[in-house]
Design goal:
- This protein is α/β, with parallel strands linked by helices and about 550 residues long.
- The chain folds into two domains: about 220 residues, 3-Layer(aba) Sandwich (Rossmann fold), CATH 3.40.50; about 290 residues, UDP-N-acetylmuramoyl-L-alanine:D-glutamate ligase.
- The chain is about 40% helix and about 15% strand.
- The strands form four sheets. Strands 10-21-20-19-18-17-16-11-12-13 form a ten-stranded mixed β-sheet, sandwiched between helices. The protein has a seven-stranded parallel β-sheet with strand order 4-3-2-5-6-7-9.
- The C terminus is likely disordered.
Length: about 550
């Protein structure tokens, strides 16, 4: 397991993901330490303005400002945009403008600069709003991260009016959300039906959990985390973070020129059955493409013959077979052959395409042992584990489990709905309980390790929703374990490479029609680019 102190140093504050309560605590701590709320608001508003100017230029902007700090950020943003030469108007909702309640005089400063402003209460038919929506950018500073009630009444009508105008405009104006899309629950990712989807969200200090939880994750557009002066030391206790290219690059295993195949480790894959021979090919090919020095397939003769015909590079270990409902499977007594053959190997991948016959379940029960090398258990390997009580007590020391929600439900003896209700918390809980790394698949896969760290992969593409995609992921992680990465790092790097390969396929051939083998050639290309000095910044700070 990667040392906790190492993770605290390696993961910068802007990659950390916080709950609303954690963010509020950070702000209180910063204020108590002398960095005032007023200073944070000034930096927040300035950051939004700078992001707009950088991406869109000195364009016409309408700032929708609500009550509280979020609206205050919007007013600061409006001032900076105006001072930079952009044409700015401000439309207020539920925001007091009298001197006694004009926090830090932000509205008064706009008035002194001659920035046009209107209030929703004085515009019951939204005539002014409609006229002012003839602009290039709308800034949503209506509701902040702490808002979690349903949007109703005047605000619902206001947002619907903006959305209607957006749909009629050609080209449509851009929407920039301040901290979060109004109507987004920043803890759960729930999204109000009246919410206005953004092209860009500028959030502050740290991303919020809801930015990475669906459906809100799909509504925020590009996510930019802006520094508002909070001491990074205050964020060190936050153990949830987003995977980005810079971190993955730093975790890649070394590839010294003065090396041989043994330097990059040996991985054995116990995979396949007569009904599912393709899983063996995909997983073993992926392990090689991930950089393992030697790949060995241990399976029944039918699987080894078919895989060897398509993939000549691996070596093969023939295992005894037994009859299953859908053809031959690995026999229960084959575990002895595996235990003997795996001596000297650095990693094991077990489960892809095994089937779930009684013989296979017995094989997995016999195979499990703390003496095994670092291991990945996937697919039917997980289903077979779930059939045995206390299976986690016999896991090897450096284990990665890679369940999708249905497999996680079987392992935990929960319903799929219960798994999906709070994937992050469940992954964390089970990683600690089982003493291993848990990679819970799905849109925005999460990786949890026993001490409480949780990484989020911000990738969601239907290109990966294809049979065999998970076999590729398991093989990649096994190949990385063979090269000496610890379980958590191997799972994170493997998830990132797999996700990036899916996005590359979607970009080159389209999301529909991608098959799992299309991912394979992208794996070495992605590593080559990551290892090069010229890192593509478009893949940093968010989705690969």
């Amino acid at each position: 397991m990667m040392q906790e102190k190492t993770l605290e140093i390696l993961i910068p504050a802007k990659q950390r993901i916080v709950t609303v309560a954690e963010m509020q605590a950070l702000e209180r701590a910063a204020d108590a330490g002398g960095h005032s709320y007023a200073a944070m608001m000034e930096l927040a508003g300035c950051a939004v303005a700078e992001a707009i100017l950088e991406r869109y230029g000195r364009v016409s902007c309408l700032v929708l400002a609500g009550p509280g700090n979020n609206g205050g950020d919007g007013l600061v943003c409006a001032r900076h945009l105006h001072e930079a030469g952009a044409a700015v108007r401000v439309y207020l909702w539920k925001r007091a403008t009298d001197p006694e309640r004009d926090y830090e005089g932000h509205f008064a400063r706009l008035q002194a600069l001659g920035v046009p402003a209107a209030h929703a209460d004085a515009d019951p038919a939204f005539e002014t709003l409609r006229a002012w929506l003839d602009c290039s950018v709308v800034v949503d500073a209506l509701l902040g991260t702490g808002a979690n009630r349903p949007i109703q009444g005047q605000l619902a009508d206001l947002l619907d009016e903006v959305q209607r105008a957006r749909s009629l405009r050609q080209p449509a104006f851009r929407v920039v959300a301040v901290d979060c899309v109004s109507g987004m629950n920043c803890d759960t990712g729930a999204l109000d039906p009246h919410s206005l989807p953004a092209d860009l969200t500028v959030t502050f200090a740290c991303a919020k959990a809801g930015h990475y939880l669906f459906p809100a994750a799909e509504a925020g557009g590009e996510l930019l985390v802006a520094d508002i002066g909070i001491d990074p030391a205050l964020v060190q206790g936050v153990r949830t973070f987003a995977l980005d290219e810079t971190t993955i690059r730093s975790w890649l295993p070394a590839r010294p020129a003065n090396s041989h195949k043994g330097a990059f480790g040996k991985v054995m894959l116990v995979v396949g059955s007569e009904a599912y021979p393709g899983a063996a090919y995909l997983a073993s090919a992926a392990a090689g493409r991930a950089g393992a020095g030697l790949v060995t397939v241990a399976s029944i003769r039918a699987v080894c013959s078919l895989t060897a015909a398509k993939l000549p590079e691996p070596t093969y270990v023939l295992l005894p077979e037994a009859a299953g409902a859908n053809g031959a499977v690995i026999a229960g007594e084959a575990s002895a052959t595996v235990h003997e053959a795996i001596q000297g190997y650095r990693a094991l991948v077990a489960g892809c395409g095994l089937g779930n016959a009684p013989a296979t379940r017995q094989f997995m029960a016999n195979l499990l042992s703390p003496s095994l090398p670092a291991a990945v258990f996937d697919a039917d390997g997980l289903n077979c584990l779930a059939a045995h009580n206390g299976w986690w007590q016999s896991l090897p020391a450096h284990t990665v489990l890679t369940p999708h929600p249905a497999e996680m439900a079987r392992l935990c003896r929960l319903s799929i709905a219960q798994v999906l209700a709070d994937r992050w918390a469940l992954a964390r809980q089970k990683a600690a309980e089982w003493g291993c790394t848990v990679l819970l698949k799905g849109p925005y896969t999460v990786v949890a390790e026993p001490s409480g760290w949780l990484a989020v992969l911000p990738v969601a593409t239907s290109a990966l929703a294809t049979a065999g995609s998970g076999d590729v992921l398991a093989g990649v992680i096994g190949g990385l374990l063979a090269q000496g990465l610890d379980a958590f790092a191997a799972a994170c790097v493997g998830a990132w490479l797999h996700g990036a390969a899916g996005l590359a396929c979607a970009a080159s051939i389209g999301e529909a029609g991608v098959v799992a083998s299309d991912l394979l050639p992208h794996l070495p290309r992605l590593q080559k680019r990551l290892r090069s000095e010229d890192v593509d910044s478009s893949l940093s700070g968010g989705a690969p």
